[in-house]
Design a protein that fits this description.
Elements: E1 11-20, H1 26-38, E2 53-59, E3 62-71, H2 76-89, E4 94-105, E5 128-136, H3 141-144, H4 153-165, H5 168-171, E6 179-189, E7 192-201, H6 207-229, E8 240-244
Antiparallel strand pairs: 1-3, 1-4, 2-3, 4-8, 5-7, 5-8, 6-7
Helix pairs in contact: 1-2, 2-6, 4-6
Length: 245
């Protein structure tokens, strides 16, 4: 189910998300992050499709994505998805501290969308690739007690990981890898949820797809529990994602 937001008012909503990741091509990273932020709703199942303006900045070991809308719901998940995909497109094999840096309501601004050509860097790690990531939450109690109103985040993540493993080529200009095997696992430990995915392909190394599968599954969890992760100012001081190959 989607949470009913029809009673909310249309106001300016802005978010900045970032990740620590090694960037090989800043132009491609920024272009990919911007495209991804505007299409996040197609890959995070319960995310509301909203009219979004987006921009991104990639330099050194930092990937930053920004999203803006005049609508009824926030765009922090869209910005997070942008930072994830920008990092993957730039050839990063790991992401640290994927987080929401800022979320604002009621303030409009202009975003300049990068226009660079997206070039994909694919790490060659063989035909069998395993990716592992985790999301650190302020508490997993709402999940353990079954109180999450959007449904079961663990079940959703187990479904999203293998489904999205096949869909990266719809989002980025890369070959559609011929996957022969996909397996995903999700576990809760303390206030951390771990997602693991193993992919086997027959033509090229499915390294990008493995990162995308795990990252999108972790963001699905975040989207479903974000109601419980916000502080009194609507920020996410404790929530972050890390993943790698």
């Amino acid at each position: 189910m989607m949470v009913d937001i029809s009673a909310k008012e249309d106001v300016w909503r802005y978010a900045v998300a970032s990740a620590e990741a090694r960037v090989k091509d800043a132009e491609s990273c920024a272009a990919a992050a911007t495209v991804a932020a505007k299409r996040a709703y197609q890959y995070i199942p319960l995310l509301h499709p909203v009219p979004i303006s987006a921009s991104a900045l990639c330099e050194g070991s930092r990937v930053e994505a920004r999203a803006l809308t005049m609508w009824k719901t926030g765009v922090e998940m869209d910005a997070l998805f942008g930072a994830l995909v920008g990092s993957i497109a730039a050839g990063a094999t790991s992401l640290r501290r994927l987080r929401v840096d800022l979320k604002l309501k009621g303030e409009g601004r202009e975003l300049e969308e990068p226009r660079g050509v997206i070039k994909i860097f694919r790490p060659d790690l063989g035909y069998i690739v395993r990716s592992v990531g985790y999301i650190h939450l302020s508490s997993t109690e709402p999940i353990r007690s079954g109180r999450v109103e959007k449904g079961d985040p663990i079940c959703a993540a187990r479904i999203v990981a293998p489904l999205n493993a096949k869909r990266l080529c719809e989002l980025l200009p890369t070959e559609c890898v011929k996957l022969e095997y996909v397996n995903s696992n999700v576990e809760i430990g303390g206030d951390v949820i771990t997602v693991e995915a193993t992919l086997k392909a027959r033509d090229v190394s499915p390294s990008l797809e493995a990162l995308f599968a795990v990252g999108s599954a972790l963001l699905t969890i975040w989207d479903m529990v974000k109601k419980y992760e916000k502080d009194e100012k609507g920020q996410y001081p404790y929530t972050y994602i890390e993943l790698g190959l």
